[in-house]
Specification:
- The chain has nine helices and no strands.
- By secondary structure, the protein is mainly alpha-helical.
- It has one domain: Globin-like (Orthogonal Bundle), CATH 1.10.490.10.
- The longest helix is centred in the last third of the chain and has 28 residues.
Length: 172
C-alpha cells in the first residue's frame, strides 16, 4: 500500500495494521510523561527547531511569559500528545484515525485560519519534534519500537488534520 493510501483518513479509508504491541508503548510512555508534563513543555522542541513557529499560536504572539512557563502552551501540548495517544488507540481498534468530526473540523479550521501550511506539519507533527521530548521524558522506556509507534500515531493524526484543512479550503 502506498504512503498516501496509508495516510488517507477520509470515509472509506483503507485500514493499516497497528497492533497492541504498538499501542502499548505509546500509552505507557504517555501515562509516565503526563505526570511530569507541568515541569516542561512537550512542545519546546518545536520552537528549538523553528523559533518563528511561535507566530502560528495566537496565544504566543504577544505573550510576555517565557515559553516554558506559558500555561496555554502547556495546555496545548497536553492536548496534542493526548490526541496522538488516542490516535494510537484508534489505529489499533480500527486501523485509521477518526477524530470526532466536530473536533476535527474545529482543529482544521483553527490551523487553517492561523496560517498553518503543509510544511509546518513537518516540524510540528513529524516524529523529530516529539521524539526528543519523549526520549528525554522517559529514557528508560525509549526504544525503536516506541519511536515508530509514536511516529505512526502522529503521522495519522496529522494526515487527518491536513485532510480536514483541504476540505475546508475547498469549500471556501
Amino acid at each position: 500500500m502506498s504512503k498516501e493510501a496509508e495516510m488517507e483518513n477520509s470515509e472509506g479509508a483503507e485500514a493499516i495494521a497497528f497492533g497492541e504491541e504498538q499501542e502499548a508503548p505509546v500509552v505507557n510512555s504517555w501515562n509516565a510523561m503526563k505526570q511530569h508534563a507541568a515541569e516542561t513543555s512537550v512542545l519546546d522542541r518545536i520552537f528549538e527547531i523553528a523559533p518563528s513557529a511561535t507566530q502560528l499560536f495566537s496565544f504566543l504572539r504577544d505573550a510576555d511569559v517565557p515559553l516554558d512557563k506559558n500555561p496555554k502552551l502547556k495546555a496545548h501540548a497536553m492536548a496534542v500528545f493526548t490526541m496522538a495517544c488516542e490516535s494510537a488507540a484508534q489505529l489499533r481498534k480500527t486501523g485509521k484515525v477518526a477524530v470526532r468530526e466536530t473536533s476535527l473540523k474545529k482543529l482544521g479550521a483553527t490551523h487553517m485560519n492561523s496560517g498553518v501550511i503543509e510544511e509546518h506539519f513537518e516540524v510540528t507533527y513529524s516524529h523529530k519534534s516529539p521524539e526528543k521530548t519523549i526520549k528525554d521524558a522517559v529514557p528508560e522506556m525509549w526504544c525503536p519500537a516506541m519511536k515508530d509507534a509514536w511516529g505512526q500515531a502522529y503521522d495519522h493524526l496529522a494526515a487527518a488534520m491536513k485532510e480536514e484543512m483541504k476540505l475546508l479550503s475547498a469549500s471556501v
